[in-house]
Amino acid sequence: VDTVGAGDAFMAATLGQLADLDAFSHPGPGLPLDEESMGRLVRGAIEVAAVTCERRGANPPRRQDLPAGWPD
């Protein structure tokens, strides 16, 4: 429908997931670097960007709009 805001939604979902993993509260690299964790992080961000593209305008979903168990 509309790709406006998809990149911002992707980034917001990435940051939200990293916050859920407590990646910002520890000094040093807090990023999950193993293949499985990175794949989950990217899939979650893609899912949020896709939902945003299904809507008109820059209208990203809120957490309650995402499927239960997101980002899996």
Q: How would you describe this structure to a colleague?
A:
- The structure is a single chain.
- The protein has 72 residues and is mostly helical.
- The chain is built from 2 helices and no strands.
- The protein is elongated, with a radius of gyration of 13 Å.
Uncertain regions spanning at least 5 consecutive residues: none
Radius of gyration from CA coordinates: 13 Å
Strand proportion, as a percent range, falls in under 5%
Q: What characteristic shape results from the CA principal axes?
A: elongated
> Main β-sheet, in a few words?
none
Query: Which structural class matches the secondary elements?
Result: mainly alpha
Helix coverage percent of residues?
A: 40-55%
Q: With helices defined by DSSP (H or I, 4 residues minimum), what is the helix count?
A: 2
> How far apart, in Å, are the first and last alpha carbons?
24 Å
The count of DSSP E runs of length 2 or more, i.e. the number of strands, is: 0
Can you write the helix and strand succession as a string? HH
Mean pLDDT: 90
